[in-house]
Every structure is written in C-alpha cells, then in structure tokens.
Here is the input.
Amino acid sequence: MGEDTDATLTLNHHGFLPDHNYVTEADIISTVEFNHTGELLATGDKGGRVVIFQREPESKSEPFSQGEYNVYSTFQSHEPEFDYLKSLEIEEKINKIRWLPQQNAAHFLLSTNDKTIKLWKVSERDKRPEGYNLKDEEGRIKDISTVTSLQVPVLKPMDLMVEVSPRRVFANAHTYHINSISVNSDYETYMSADDLRINLWHLDITDRSFNIVDIKPANMEDLTEVITAAEFHPLHCNLFVYSSSKGTLRLCDMREAALCDKHSKLFEEPEDPSARSFFSEIISSVSDVKFSHSGRYLLTRDYLTAKVWDLNMESKPLETYQVHDYLRSKLCSLYENDCIFDKFECAWNGSDSVIMTGAYNNFFRMFDRNTKRDVTLEASRESSKPRAVLKPRRVCAAGGKRRKDDISVDSLDFTKKILHTAWHPNENIIAIAATNNLYIFQDKLNSEMH
Amino acid sequence: MDRTFLTLRISVVPNSRGGTKRSRGHDGFVRHMKSVKGTSMLGRGVKRKWSSLEGSEAEQLPDAAATEDKRLDAALEDSEEEDRGDRRSRTDAGHLQQRQLVLSLCLKKLQHYQAGVELSLRRSVLLINTLRQIQEEMQSDGTDVQLGGVSRDARLLRDDFREDESVTCPGCTEGDAESPSPPPSPEPTNTTPTDLHKPLPNVVGHTFSDAGSAMGYLSDLALDDIFEDIDTSMYESSELPSAWAAGSLWPVSVSFWPNDDDVKLCSSAGSLQSCLLDLNELDHIMEILVKS
Here is the structure.
C-alpha cells in the first residue's frame, strides 16, 4: 500500500515491557486526549494518575521532521474513596479527560472519575527570583545585622518545572457513575453525564450545578435505558447530544427548556427484525458519540459498527462501517466472557474525512469516508519496529481461506482491546492506548490533513 | 487510505509506576484480563446439562472449559445460523438451547455480587432487558411457561441449582430427597420470594427492580423449592427462621440500583431483605475493622 520514507528521528524508548509480563492494573490507560493545538497529549489510567506528553518543537536542522512526544508532567488526579453510606468503593480510575482551550500561558484540563470532576492547572515555571534581602539562597533568614544594602530581587532562569495544581473540585453531584464530560464552546460551562443524569456546571462554581437531563424513572423497576455518552456541539453552545444503551441519540437544545428531557431530535435506526437476537440490544448500545469538527455530523460506536449521522437526518445513519463483523457469530461467547459489554471509543480526524476506532487483538481500524477504503492496523511491539511501516492486518473467518499474515477469528486475543484512541486536531498523528501502553503513530508521508 | 499511515514513527510509552505495584485485587481485573471461566451455580452446570441433552456423556473435566467453549461455539454458531434463516421456528432445538444458555448466563451475571464494588448500572440494565426479552419469548411460546407441567427449561435450571447445592453443606442434601416435581398449582405455593419483594417498592429509593421480577418469573416456573436448599450458612443465626434461607439472593439485588437518597434500607415489618442486608453490612464492616 505504500512506500517507506526515510525517517531519521530516533524512537522514543521508555523501556520495553515484555508482553507476557503481569500488567499492573493501575497502569491500564483509561482515557487519551489531545489538547486543542495537539501540542499536549494527556492520558489517564486506572490508578487515578494523569500523564501529560508534550510535543517537542520542530527541530530547525530538520524542518520536515516533527517532534516527538515526551513526558511533560505526571500527577495523581484522583484517589480511591470509600462511600461509607453505601459501603462501596469509589474507583480512582480516570474515566475522561477534556482540555480547556488555552487562554493564557497555563493549560487547564478537566479529569473525572466515577463521581468527582477536577479542574487542573498546568503551568510552567522557568524563572525564579533571586537576591532577596532578608533570605539567603537557601531560604534561611539572614542575620539582620549583615544586611547593609538593599537590592531588588531579579528573575533568573532555572530548569523548567511543570507545576500542576487542582483549581476546582466539582463533587457530590452524581449519584451514578460519570461516563462523559464535555466543555462547552462558550468556554465557561461544561457538562458531566452519568447513567441517568446530565449536569451543567460553570467552570468557576463548584458548589452547585444545574441538572439538564434526568431520565431516572419514578420507579427504578421501570428503568430500561441509561445514558452512555454525551457531548456539546462544537460550535453551538446551546446544543448537546447524548446517547443511550438502546442505541438512540438525542439532540437537545438548552434554549427550549431548563430541563432537557424532551429532545429536539431523536436519531434512531429502525431495527432489522430479521437480525434480531438475544444480543441485539446489547450490541446496539452506543459506547461513544463524537461531533465532527464541523458540527454537521455525529460519529457513534456500538459494539460491531461505527456510524456517521447527519444532524439533519434522524431516520437512519448516513454511513455505517463494520468494525469487526466477524464477531457477529461469536456473540454468545462474547456475552459469556463479558466482552460484549466493552465500550469502544471513536475519533474523527481533523478534516472529518477519516474515522478511527479500536477493536480486539490490539487492532484498530480507520475508515476513509471519501474513498470508502478502510484499513486494520495493529498496535504491538512485535509488529511495530521503530520507524517501520505499519502493516495492514486482516482477520479471516475461521476455516476460511487464509493468506499469509492473516489472523483467524479464533486466534484473536480478546484481552488486548483498544478502547481509547485519539486523533491530533490538525495533523495525522494518532494516539492509541493498548492496555498499559501508549502508541503514538504519525504519518510521515502525509503529515498535513487532507 | 493509500497515503495515510503507511510510514509511521512510533513512540511506545509504557504507562508504568516504575515498580510499585498497586494491585487492587479486584475480581473485575481478572474478568478483564482473562475470559471468565468461573465456577458458579449456573455456568458449569448448564454446560454439563447441555452435553447430556445432546446425548453425549456429561463431561466432568474441570479444565474442559476450552473444549466446551469450542463445542458451544460450534453449537451456537449453528443455532444462530438457523435463527437467522428461520425466525419463525422458535421451537428450534438450537434456538432453545441458546436461549437456555443465555438465560442462565444472564442470571449468573446478575447474581454475581462482589462486596464493596458498585455494579455498572448500564450492564445491569442490559442484562435485565435481555432477561425480560427471554421471558417474553418464553411466555409467547406458551409451552415453556405452563406451570402445571415441568418444562424442560425449568427442570434444567432447577436441577442445576440442586447439583450445585450438594457441594455446599451436608444439611442441605436433605432437600435432594424431596420429590423433584414442583408444586402443580399455578400460583407458587411457597411464596416467600414473591411476598418479600412486595413491600420493597414502598421503600424509598430502593427497588429490587428486575431481580425481583426475575425472581417472580422463576417462581412462576415453580422453582421455589430450590431456594430452600441453598446454603445460607453465612447468614444463618439462631434468630433467623429457616424460611429466610431463600433470601440469599437478596443482598445481590440491592446493589443494582444505587440508593439515591443515601438512606440505609431499614424497612419495617422485619423484611428479610433488610436483615440480610444488615448482616451483609455487618460482615463488611467487620472486615474493615479487622483489616485496619
């Protein structure tokens, strides 16, 4: 499918972890997100830790080689908590990270676990004042008798230090588990969604939030549907969408009512009665929803497919992409081992022409909406040598004709799932979270978005 | 796609804490990292029953999971193909087998209760909807829900319960001596489970939701007597009458729907459920105290 081009940059090794090693559960990456410029990439893990990577600036000696991502900062965002009233543990796992658009020298991000959202400020310090009158260099108070003259402290350069501090803690607003957060285009508010409710917050106010969606029935025995994901429209600050476990999408307009229980638009594909099985509902549950950058389309992911919807057409999706249809005959086994409940995320590229989502066996898929071509790639150390071409992979049906390098459905490793992926906002750089490993791939041939 | 992502420079960054392992020891972790081949009341038993249904010797190998899966897969794939081909014939053996398996898996998953960890509401809702779907299908089929006779499905489930009971405690084996046929009356004569869940919807913020209706469904199939034999030695105390033994599933259902009002459930009228809940909480608190 293409040629290897010369890449002379060194691989950024952080040490190899053999695949058969015991994976520390706390290191499993649970969310990946680029910031608005793509300069920073944040990951959150099951242990409540956030790691931020920064892209090295372009090297002047090699103007066509972009920088690598190096660790910029690491901090503990959430700690495990214990809910004494319910005798339940609250996991510290970071469910989502969302960056705020940058407004000054500092960077801000929101990170959330099941119950609490935190606003973190990430700032750099590369200068420090020196020449205090009353303190010496180590900070000890000087003997006043030795002070004979006044000096003005000056700022001297120092080694770069990245400081992270929690600026806001938004707590106690969610009874159920938070699955999504989304920053509004007004840059003043954001929403947090749990299984049954969506709350609207002001970024500066932590002691109250507005409930804008509530689908909790009066009698919990009547509950048949939960909220699975929610996102604000990228351009219209009054619009947002939320998806459900029944495969529906609801577009809501906050101007219509304070409580947006009535949707403005309901996107639902009618079920094909001939395809109905015991698992139909489970596989129709939407695990992720993303607006396109243009705001004209919605991308949704359910268990077997990724769908692109036009905001103007509620009756059915514009495009449907089969991510791993070979699993359709395996649904019962996947139900048994709980894999059928896995929640895969999806992503748009910057120009909304390509969509990407993960699958099993550390495979991830990309679909070009214009050419209708797709590719399956693998994120693994064995198949990814430094500066190597990523070979397209193929999954063949069990017992079917097998080409060299094909992998049979029965050999897929269902413990290696790529649930979280992210695409750089402007360039063809992608971040893939494979269990506890983060892979960052870049298209060398074609860095600019098409 | 020809041009994008052919040539890739990679950064592979292992997310690592550099040696200090913070293993949480969750069962959930095990579930994530390996396929569940758990031993529970229904899982293994059902598989063995399947093989006996199919006429072959019941496999007793504990590690036959892989081969069982392959056999199951084959059987299920066949049955699913049949399903797709002919939706109308629901009395398909393959379809019935699959339905039975899904039903038992559903119940097994719903019963899986892990102290201290909140169940995912989404998962619970999806499981319960599946259960409802199966229930509706069985009811619309008509044959399987006749309460007079012993349906094959009911016997399957009941026998599975019995099979696992025998390994619990010697005292429970007395139940095996009882007549295997369920009470013939349409209304369940042993109404312990159904009675119990009636006062509960009155409790604020608490429901059994579909665990309760699942129980009702099961009791409709006249399976009540099986619960008498379930080992509840964990909960037994001199104050608890033996009838409360049936409630061993109750603490499970509580955790489905997180209590909205943060009010501990202490309903009146000595509801079995709340007593077992209290005992459960007590155990949990004792664990914490002992550990600290």
Summary: The helical segments of chain A are 280-284, 331-336. Chain A touches chain B through 103 residues (CB under 8 Å).
